[in-house]
Amino acid sequence: QVQLVESGGGVVQPGRSLRLSCAASGFTFGSYEMHWVRQAPGKGLEWVALISYHGSDKYYADSVKGRFTISRDNSKNTLYLQMSSLRVDDTAVYYCAREQDWAFDIWGQGTTVTVSS
Amino acid sequence: EIVLTQSPATLSLRPGERATLSCRASQTVSSYLAWYQQRPGQAPRLLINDASRRATGIPARFSGSGSGTDFTLTISSLEPEDFAVYYCQQRSSGPLTFGGGTKVEIK
Fold it and tell me: Which residue, among B69, B78, B58, has the nearest Cα to B27 in the 3D structure?
């Protein structure tokens, strides 16, 4: 079935780096734009980053620009989020999501990132 | 950046009652508006796309309306599983944004 599975979350100190992965299955991964969305504890949803079908175009929220890098490997059906210079306010559940018709029709279950000293 | 303002923040209703949720955009988003449901501990689920088109598998009690800057999500008769948080989202222009959410709780 159509599925997205995130991994790579954990506890990390401020200033360190972490890479998240999102494995896609059940659909033609390279035919969709993909996003990362996060949710801080007890808060709402915040869009983080977008990558185009072939990875040539990337867009970021101002809050992560210059620190996070989105990428994809269509041969491995996998989306990535490289996070560096992590801050305490990056603590959140990170979801990958598939975009179809301007909305997110498929979401992963999320992976938790905790930034704490 | 387009700001989406959802109201009310909390809606206290009983099963079987009608829920009306509002989402107002700071500038026009045409019909590029979606609604999501998020139950505790779960990922969001797409309910409505293009302001009024139900996503695959979404029950008919969910309906969306509006265009431009004012949008409404209506749940015609609340089922126990509908008590959750609802978010609107726009993809019209600028960075993609979400509203702050409306929690529908059991009265």
Answer: B69
